[in-house]
Amino acid sequence: MRSSCLDLQQGKLKLDIRRNVLIIKGSATAMTVFFPLDTARLRLQVDEKRKSKTTPAVLLEIIKEEGLLAPYRGWFPVISSLCCSNFVYFYTFNSLKAVWVKGQHSTTGKDLVLGVVAGVVNVLLTTPLWVVNTRLKLQGAKFRNEEIIPTNYKGIVDAFHQIIRDEGVLALWNGTFPSLLLVFNPAIQFMFYEGFKRKLLKKQQQVFSELFPIFHHPLSSVDTRTGRNIPVIVPVMLYTELTSLDVFIIGAVAKAVATTITYPMQTVQSILRFGRHRLNPENRTLGSLKNVLHILRQRVKRFGLVGLYKGLEAKLLQTVLTAALMFLVYEKLTAATFTVMGLKKSQKH
């Protein structure tokens, strides 16, 4: 009995590792495919004086001024940071889950709590990587804003060296406060995803129940008096499930809602990570609440509420497509896991 439980735990651990590796690979591939969209988004967020145009127009402008490969500038540092960040997140999440759950059935509430804690740990450990890759990604850009101080880093290591030398070690954690707030973005996304999913399943169930009569299975029961078989009619519920297209659309809409809600904080995060503006230079190290509010007020004062959402189109195109793809993979992996577990149980019996 003990050996079977141990085998089950080891099998579950291997499955979690494989799933996490697939997710890391998928996110890296998606980031590579949609990288130009992220470049357009970052330019519009950081460069206040760049006119807010459509994403294709911004990309064409960048290519015309800086070259064909400009939209992919900083790709390697970003992919490296993404892989490290995903590793830290999933390692922390699974380690905490193993300690807290201890072989018991995990709930959605526990997973959300663990996700937030893992997100906080991830932010504190990997923010220096994101600060460096943000600056490398914007190095050599043709800014419209004259207040932006250009950088001259030779690579990742040199960027770390220059930031520590010129701005201090704590400058590597610029934008930590808004990053910690953005930890709740996946929770918002998951909440909307589950809500949309429940509503759609309920609607499908109602439609099927109206279109089709309740199915019956003829079974038999033995009469204790006569010993004869008596036919028994047992109603069978008609269950429906989401299609791949349903999952894709729900994932896209949920991510769009979460991204729109938190986008102003993402704009502040990018500005603080870049950290090359001449305005408000003092006490900006960790992106405190005071500095976050200062940047938000300045944006609204200069450009109105629209200024908080510059680059939202590119961000939605990138993250929505990526998130929808990841949700699709998640649903398929979950279904495949239960199928395999069911087959194994049937083989044992």
Automatic annotation (TrEMBL):
Residue windows of the Solcar repeats: 20-99, 106-199, 242-336
Principal subcellular localisation of the protein: membrane
Which compartment or compartments is the protein found in?
Peroxisome membrane
Q: Kindly give the InterPro entries that the UniProt entry links to this protein.
A: MCP_dom_sf, MCP_transmembrane, Mito/Peroxisomal_Carrier
* A GO CC annotation given for this chain: peroxisomal membrane
Q: Which Pfam families match?
A: Mito_carr
Q: How does it sit in the membrane?
A: Multi-pass membrane protein
Any one GO MF term held by the record is: FAD transmembrane transporter activity
List the keywords (alphabetical): Membrane, Peroxisome, Repeat, Transmembrane, Transmembrane helix, Transport
Give the top-rank taxon of the lineage listed in the UniProt record for this protein. Eukaryota
Q: Which residue spans traverse the membrane?
A: 21-37, 112-132, 170-193
Regarding protein family, the annotation reads: Belongs to the mitochondrial carrier (TC 2.A.29) family.
The protein here is known as Solute carrier family 25 member 17
In its UniProt entry, the species of origin is given as: Crocodylus porosus (Saltwater crocodile)
